[in-house]
TrEMBL record:
Protein name: diguanylate cyclase
Keywords from the UniProt entry: Coiled coil, Membrane, Transmembrane, Transmembrane helix
A Pfam entry, by short name: dCache_1_like
Origin organism lineage: Bacteria, Pseudomonadati, Pseudomonadota, Betaproteobacteria, Burkholderiales
GO molecular function list: diguanylate cyclase activity
Catalytic activity: 2 GTP = 3',3'-c-di-GMP + 2 diphosphate
EC number: 2.7.7.65
GGDEF domain span: 368-506
Amino acid sequence: MLKRLPITFWATVFVTVVCVALVSLDFWRSWNARGVLLEETERSSTNLARAMSQHADDTIKAADTSLADLEERIEMDGLHEGQLARLHQVMLGQVRALPQLDGLYAYDEAGRWMVNSQPTLDRKANNADREYFRFHRENRDKGPHIGLPVISRSSGKWIIPVSRRIDKPDGAFGGVVLATIDIDYFRRFYASFDIGDNGAVALLSNRGVMLVRRPFRAEGIGASIVDTPLYQAYSRSGTTGTGMFRSTQDGQVRLNSYRPLQNYPLFVTAALSKEEALAHWRRDTWLHSLGVVALAALLALFGQRLIGQMRRRLEAERELRQARDALASLNATLEKMALQDGLTGLANRRQLDVSLGNEFSRATRQGASLALALIDVDHFKLFNDRYGHSAGDDCLRAISRAIRQQTPKRAGDLAARYGGEELAVLLPNTDIAGAWAVAERMRQAVAALQLPHADSAQGIVTISAGVAALVPQRGVDAATTLIEAADKALYAAKSAGRNRVAPDLGLAPVLTP
Ligand SMILES: Nc1nc2c(ncn2[C@@H]2O[C@H](COP(=O)(O)OP(=O)(O)OP(=O)(O)O)[C@@H](O)[C@H]2O)c(=O)[nH]1
């Protein structure tokens, strides 16, 4: 079934498969490259988040260590005047040593400013209203507390408060020590990252409050992000993770990596813009795809032309085959016509001569008898004269038909038009008696046609025949011998009154009719 499909079909299938494979392979390659690029982006953002969380942890840890030291000193020595001057010096030293520190402060149990790292101390100021102060007053927990970002009352900068509770010797609330971390310190650090034009990094509290963010927006500090998909993913997992989220702040889709701080209830997130990460890939893919599609189109066009040519060539070959077949059949017809008489449909004189030559040779070789009957229409001239030449032709055709029907069907038997109104029947392997019998049957068949002939003695068309037979002797007899003998017999038949068969007894004296 498949074999019968034309070559042009398979060529079309081939070109189509090549074009589709070309485009599919390029698509697959591009899609793979995209996946690899996103994986790399994810790795970068994860590494960035790790570095940020470590940095934030270290930054707060250093401040908290100072606080723990201050807390211990105050709990040991109390907050009396002599102690305050020493504490002031210690605080100044710590703030100078730690660039992230905006200031260090100590408040008594009523929130009054007792000592800080500022050059002057406003004794009338009170921080009892601050969130961290209320937290420590109400919680006996001795660990550090990270507060919400606020603008410092003393320096006017955005700060993150880190505080610890001071206990009196009896365990009652004795005040708070506070370290304020300059948000600008984080901002400067985050500004040093290469996160592209649309990347974002942030430090956030575990309760979903923004502490610092790049791109920096003052109104973003302290804002809640609990409704964002990023925070929901983080609070669900509670640990390190990644995800592709659309920012609720600027609508950008980013690949986010989030990671909690090891020691504090905060987490960081590093987000790289998907758009930026894929920008180069997109440009590259566009150019590449354009090239591949153009190549596939060229291939398809070229293939289509080639297949068209193939089709035309096949068509030409088919036409050529048809012409050759027509020529062959024409040749066969011509060959037949060359051996056939046009009027009677019997073999023509040429074929008779060839067959007679062949059969004569065979009979000579085999020592077989070869017979020939020469037949002539009686008074045919008168027939033509009375009925016309065309009726004469019809008459000849009818006689030829009758003679063909009576001609034996053995190989070599041949009825032919000898010339004019004269016919000949070649009968191999036949002696004179057999030939006479055949000619007699023919004569009777013609008479049976009852073709009217007013100028004939019988009133119908009749024929006369002369038959001759011989067993040819090599070097003695020739084919013409047989013709001449038959012709002589025909003449005898005519002379004897026509409408009869006369045998030639010279060549075959054995005849007993
Ligand atoms: N219509 C027609 N006539 C033919 C054809 N071939 C030969 N003839 C005619 O046949 C006639 C033969 O005449 P003749 O040879 O005189 O002999 P005949 O009239 O048959 O008389 P006998 O043979 O003596 O009986 C001629 O008039 C030819 O013109 C042919 O193909 N068609």
